[in-house]
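U., I forgot to send this yesterday:
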Amino acid sequence: MLRNLLFILIIFGLQNLKAQEKPTYVEGEVLFQLNPVVSIQKLDQKLKNFSPLSGESFAIRIISKNVNIYSLQFNPEAHSHEEILAFLRAQNEITIAQNNHYVQSRATTPNDPEFSNQWQFENTGQTGGTAGADMQATDAWDITTGGLTAHGDTIVVCVIEEQGGNLTLPELAPNAWKNIHEIPNNGIDDDNNGFIDDYLGWNIQSLNDDIGTSNHGTQVSSMIGAKGNNAVGGTGINWDVKIMMIRGVVPASESSVLAAYDYPLTMRKMYNQTNGQKGAFVVVTNASWGVDGADPSSYPLWCAFYDSLGIHGILNVGATANNSVDVDVVGDMPTACTSDYLVAVTASDHNDVRNFSAYGAVSIDLAAPGQQVYMLNTNGTWGNSSGTSFACPATAGTVALMYSIDCPSFMALAKSNPGAAVLMVKQALLDGVDPVANLSSEVLTGGRLNAFNALNELINQCDTNECSYAYSVRIDSLTDTTARIDWDGISSSYWFYFKENSASVYDSIHIDTNFVFIDTLIFCSDYDFYMITDCDTAFSNPTVTYSFTSDGCCTNPEILIDTIEAQNATFYWNSVYTASSFNVQYRVLGSSTWTELAGITDTFITISGLDSCEYYEIQIKTNCPQIGQTYSSSLEFKTKGCGACYDQNYCTVLAGNSNLEWIETVQLSWMYCNSGDNGGYMFNDTATTTLITGDQYTLAVTPGYAGFNFTETFGAWIDFDQNGVFDTGERILSGFENGLITDSFTVPLTAVHGQTRMRITMVGQTGGGIPCPTNQILGEIEEYCIWISDVASVDSEELENQIQIYPNPVKDQLIISLKSNQEKYAVQLFDATGKLVLETRIENQQNYISMSQLTSGVYILRVQNDQSILKIERIVKEE
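Result:
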């Protein structure tokens, strides 16, 4: 009796334990795959008439059209799974039948204390929003948390900001990018990328790595890559990405935008060209700024720059406007650009609703969390903020995350064809959005960013063939008959196929190294090649077809300027493999007589005996043993000796923001220039005057305004000692005004004679009275070439007799007669608006100037030597 009781208790316990187990599959539902040649209607009829389900209700739902997978739902209380599966597996129409198993969630949640507030990554309704209206980040992090590619490349996001961001905070410092090939603060361009001391990033205004600490840039950076799972603060969408900071962009100045984008492009191109030895693997840029209501057709260079970035491997993400307008109608920069390599983003809230931000069913690609999102501030605290500025980095960070998937074939594509990889990433990003009903007519995809889906969309395109193709293909050496071609890959065995371009059949070589040496080339011939990886039991897909030209072509090299002085110039060029020598010819621009220097065996030459302040052109041709070239096209250059205004290296300035205020007019002595708005900067070497040492003059400057008359800070300097520096003692105008401002000055007796530079600044902010502002100003800067002379050396009557100009009025030909032809004179002709319409040099006693091509009207003729203006005359041109 005791044993029977024990047996009953054991059975009861097992049944009770089984009842408490969580089922591993969906009860009342099974999956099956239908033979592709059978219709689902036939199976449906069979189930109704000849199965355990006959006479009962059931439902069939398609799961995948591509592979013919369906689900069958039935009453589990009436039929067991085993019964239904046994029937299905016995049918010829069905290839596979199984239970619909539950899949365990492996969402990765970081241990950062502020993460629970970051609804943008995981929305549980904690802020009163809709659960699931998020980027599905925790599921994405179960796939990858970023950092490195499948090939081990360090992934970099470039953040472009006006005032930079604070990357020294504990949450950002581990992910701050550094240029490890640059030694900081040594004043040397160590990595030869064209930027000096760019160790921490780049400041396009101060030309150093002062990347700032602004709150906006800090928030943007934290959304992208605040360090995750380090028990500090919150996290970014990408836990381990590197953030490259570019500071100094001013959207109102397109030149600053182009300069900002130029740095990441330089670094990615260098990375591509050196196979990762230098540069940076920049995969995406972030632009959380723009120009509201702008017409992209007015910004062709800006829009086109995205194509340049894209083909070298950089996708670009831009934030649209923070006002509820249709950018398809009103325009926007950059989000209305049509580049394939740009992703335009608007902002959504915790309910997947777009409230304050712009939209556009054509121009705006998708929405991303951007309203009251939780981010890091520059003071180290965490808090909420709103703007498309933050939807943008959520997207850019996701793009960088996508590059970290474990897919060697994708990285092989990213290195062999970077532009194609960018387009693949963009398409996966857009295909992976969560559809949102209220966004269906507002953005191109009709949805909101989903990082998990984006990763899976890209993973689904991964070539599962573990035998991936070669990448980072490069030609390491090339002669007329030989070539060495190197590459990287997972194998050490390859089939190499190559042919001369005109041939129809490829030759093949099987090699067990990661390079091939070819010694059967024909000089100056075009070749094509590709490779297939041999993995013993499998082969890769072919690489793209590469092309090269063997050496030995008798071509003209590009002639380049080394140095230009007043009476000599040095030029250089690359060597040509088959060249025996080179010829160079040069002449004064417009002259009919060339001077030829033949038989040059070096790759450089210095030409002496040139005239100062003269325009020249130079050409080169290559001499080869069997064939020679004709001369190349001309390179034009101008010798120095024109005076300090041209020859000195004055401090460069960035064009101001002249949208609201600018320099309207400038008057000095008899020079009057009504220049108007010139986009923030103007160098005017046509409007000029002569100042006499010891005399007093008045400079008058009038501002122009688009609307309100702001108070401006004015400054003007003349480089009297012609040393290339605007010294404090050379300031001739200062003050604050919202209208005409004048100031008087005396030309020092010690002023150097000749042509020098005057700089005028008008700045709509305090602290603007300096000649060399390092940041963009609100206002305008203008520069002029001014003559300094000594009144004692000027004899107007003698000059009048020395230079005769006739006839006046003139129809076809103007004659300038010189009493002496011992020196050259510059002749300039200006129309009534001050535009230079003719410029030449004269040295003969009788000089003829053609006027037939000019329209009738009044012109101003100016004759000058290297020291001063000698004659100015009003010329009337008749029909």
